[in-house]
Amino acid sequence: xxxxSSPQRRIGVLLVNLGTPDSPETSDVRRYLNEFLTxxxxxxxxxxxxxxxxxxxxxPLRAPKSAKIYKQLWTERGSPLLFHGLDLQQKVQEELGPDxxxxxxxxxxxPSIASALEELRAAEVERIIVLPLFPxxxxxxxxxxxxxxxxxxxxxxxxxxxxxxxxxxxDPGFIATIVTLxxxxxxxxxxxxxxxxxxxIPERHIKKGDPTKYCQFGSCCDTLTDRNRYCYRxxxxxxxxxxxxxxxxxxxxxTVSFQSRLGRDPWLKPYTDIALKDFPAKGIxxxxxxxxxxxxxxxxxxxxxxxxxxxxxxxxxGEHWQLVPSLxxxxxxxxxxAAMIRRS
Length: 344
Fold this sequence. Notes:
CATH topology of the largest domain: Rossmann fold
GO molecular function, one term: metal ion binding
Subcellular location: Cytoplasm
Protein name: Ferrochelatase
Order of helices and strands: EHHHEHEHEHEHHEHEHEH
Distance between the termini: 26 Å
CATH class of the largest domain: Alpha Beta
Shape: globular
Catalytic activity: Fe-coproporphyrin III + 2 H(+) = coproporphyrin III + Fe(2+); heme b + 2 H(+) = protoporphyrin IX + Fe(2+)
Pathway: Porphyrin-containing compound metabolism; protoheme biosynthesis; protoheme from protoporphyrin-IX: step 1/1
């Protein structure tokens, strides 16, 4: 029989996002990019080539340019990805109550996954639920977090049960929050078209995760099934279909596209920056843009989709480009995160 005098063991929750430099200064941006771009799941080339190429050439050239962009993004509270993550941690903790211990970490830089796991270990949690804050599974994001967690806990003498929430791109609460934010913008004015812009990945990443060669980058992604449930492209299309249904959009009302490609190898298509240039010639002058691969505002949403794509669209003859904010720590999103954790 359990000892009534012993304290109840709590459940640990680890929320993880991608990462951010400590500041927008070039030295901190360089440190962040060095860690990010030498991750073998992000840049999947041999380490003997990856480290000298990126640490010796790519990062030194890219860091000053990226630092200028981060300075545009920075706020009085610092990096949006960081403070929105800390806000989410606090609100989810309040929602779940004292039976849970909620920690927050970044895959790259601070607060680290290691420090967040140590916080949970010090709290003597009974088990740990890890929620990488990437809605659609990709080896370069969720897979990297999973590998990092296991690399850390393998050195613990006692390893508690660990459960990963690998993807939530179809989760009802996640979809409902995006729909709510979208309706706020649609209530303000009419839009000719909607764009769902997702972070891109190389096509080879999809192929490497598809041993049966089911994915052909075509109609196979029209339905999410057991065979393609870990295909990033299929997950993105599924998220878009569900949000579109919630907004009452027909297939002709929206476009699914991909951004942030790097290098010469083919990445998932269509590319957002190319697709949007054709809109004005088709009579599409007012566009509402979503970034459903991100749960918090960051460089890829605020700067890339919100500012750079807006400029490209207007140069092509567009009149209004509006970015829908990320989920950040919206009350409906906090409820959705808490619900996913309770179900786990």
